[in-house]
C-alpha cells in the first residue's frame, strides 16, 4: 500500500452476533491479517451507519467500508480483492491461478452465499410465518444442493485450487454462516475445510480482534 497511515475499516460497535465473527468485517480483518497489513477500525453504531456522513463511505449504510488514503471502498469482496492485488499471500502470481482464485471468490459470494442468506433470513426473521415449517426444509435443501456440489469439487484437497487463496477465505467465511445448523458437518470434507481455515493464525488474530470489540476490550 502506498500511504503510510494504515487502512481503516468500519465494523459494528455492537455486532448482533456477539463477537462470533459472522459480520462481514471479519472477512476483511482476516484478509488484512493474512497479508500482514496493520489496520485501524472505526466502530459505528446502527444509527450512525444510516447518516449521510457514513453513506459517503458506504452508500448502503452497511459495514464494512475501507479507507486507504483517499481511496474509499465498500463491498467486502471488492475490499478483499483490492488487498489481495496489493499484497502477496492471497492471490498467486501466475495469471491463470490468480483468475481461478478470483472465480472462487465470486462463487463464494454469488453462488454459495445467496441460498445460505435466504435460509438465515427465514430462520432469523421467522418470515412467512404461516408456512415457516414447510419453508425451512426447502431452503435447507437448496443450501445442501450447493454444498454437495462444493464438497464434490473439493474432494480430499485442502483448498479449492492448490494453495490457500482469497477464494478459500471467502468460501470459509460463507460456510461459517451456517454455524449451528449442522449442515456443513453433513459434508465431512467441508467441515474439515472450515476448520482448516479457522486454524490459520491470521484467522485467529482477526477473530480475536473482533471478539475484543464485543467484550469492550478493543
Ligand atoms: N455485500 C455487502 C458486503 O459484502 O460488504 C454486505 C454488507 C452487509 O450485509 N453488512 C451488514 C450490515 O451492515 C453486516 S454483515 N447490516 C446492517 C444494515 O444493513 O443495516 C451481515 C451480518 C450481520 C449480522 C450477523 N450476525 O449477527 O450473525 C451476520 C451477518
Structure at a glance:
The protein is of the alpha+beta class. The protein has 9 helices and 4 strands; from the N terminus they run βαβααββαααααα.
Description of the structure:
Helix 1 packs antiparallel against helix 7 (166-176), helix 5 (95-125) packs parallel to helix 7 (166-176) and helix 7 crosses helix 8. The chain has nine helices and four strands. It has helices at 25-35, 46-49, 52-55, 76-86, 95-125, 132-154, 166-176, 188-199, 201-214; strands spanning 8-12, 40-44, 65-68, 71-74. 32% of the residues are buried. It has a four-stranded mixed beta sheet with strand order 2-1-3-4. It is α+β, with helices and mostly antiparallel strands. Helix 1 links the parallel strand 1 (8-12) and strand 2. It binds S-(P-nitrobenzyl)glutathione (GTB).
Which sequence of strands runs across the widest sheet? 2-1-3-4
Distance between the termini: 24 Å
Helix and strand sequence: EHEHHEEHHHHHH
CA radius of gyration:
18 Å
The residue fraction in helices comes out at 55-70%
Examine the secondary-structure arrangement and name the CATH architecture of the largest domain.
Up-down Bundle
For the biggest sheet, the summary is: 4 strands, mixed
- Portion of residues in beta strands equals 5-15%
Question: Which CATH first-tier class of the largest domain would you pick?
Answer: Mainly Alpha
